[in-house]
Write a structure and sequence with these properties.
The chain is an alpha/beta fold. The protein has one domain (4-109): 3-Layer(aba) Sandwich (Rossmann fold), CATH 3.40.50.2300. It contains five helices and five strands. It has helices at residues 12-24, 36-46, 62-72, 87-96, 108-119; strands at residues 4-8, 28-33, 50-54, 78-83, 100-104. Helix 2 runs parallel beside helix 3 (62-72).
Length: 120
């Protein structure tokens, strides 16, 4: 059975790039979300093995969504994704319990190593 993943990013292009990289390696993308509220809703519906969550999104940012997802499931495996210059937010996410973080723009190997780390 393949590992299931929820992609949450407000940029459809970023989700498409991530989806291509992950599906090529045999991961199953069970849902996509374009903001934090949608990410929470899709998490509850699909209960994926891993969530890749962008920090900067409309309606609800990734950090707020992360806290809500951890409220629903303290064992959720979340990987945060952010652009450069958001170190303080990344530190907050790590303290809250995310498994790893990816800085955009990222190389395919980086997203794959983050997933490997999250699954351990």
């Amino acid at each position: 059975m393949s590992t299931t993943i929820l992609l949450a990013d407000d940029l459809s292009f970023m989700r498409m790039v991530q989806k291509e990289i992950l599906e090529e390696k045999g991961f199953e993308i069970v849902a996509e979300a374009s903001d934090g509220l949608e990410a929470i809703e899709k998490y509850e519906q699909t209960r994926p093995d891993i969530i890749i969550l962008d920090i900067t999104m409309p309606n609800m940012n990734g950090l707020d969504a992360m806290h809500k997802i951890f409220d629903i499931d303290p064992k959720a495996r979340i990987i945060m994704c952010s652009a450069l210059g958001q170190q303080q937010l990344i530190v907050e996410a790590i303290k809250a319990g995310v498994k790893d973080f990816i800085v955009k723009p990222f190389k395919p190997e980086r997203i794959l190593s983050a997933i490997e780390k999250a699954l351990k």
